[in-house]
Specification:
single chain; 8% strand
Length: 119
């Protein structure tokens, strides 16, 4: 099994997961900015956002923490796989180009020899 197609799938999946995780964190951030800036019975978890401390529910804190971690990890995995994918593509192109250049040199060399023998 070749590694290159797998890297492409991992890179695409990492970016897709990152894009899907972002709205969850954004929703919690938006809700937190509308909630009180002091602790209450229902808003018991502190969350530092945009230079202020907002209090959110424990469920919102869990959602925010998980979505941020998933966002960060999928970004790193997707970026690393994408870089390796592009580097392997560049290497493959260079190898193909060098083979084509060698074939062209060989053709030119043979045609020169053929011309010399005809004269």
């Amino acid at each position: 099994m070749q590694l290159r197609p797998l890297l492409g799938v991992i890179a695409a999946a990492g970016w897709l997961v990152m894009i899907l995780a972002w709205p969850f964190a954004a929703f919690v951030e938006r809700q937190a900015l509308l909630q009180p800036s002091y602790r209450t019975d229902s808003y018991s978890e502190a969350l530092a956002l945009k230079g202020t401390v907002c209090f959110v529910t424990p469920d919102q804190k869990l959602t925010y923490t998980l979505s941020r971690r998933v966002f960060q990890i999928s970004f790193l995995v997707g970026a690393a796989a994408g870089i390796v994918f592009l580097a392997s593509d560049r290497q493959r192109r260079a190898a193909r180009l060098s083979i084509e250049q060698m074939n062209e040199i060989a053709r030119q060399g043979w045609s020169r020899e053929a011309r010399k023998t005809k004269r």
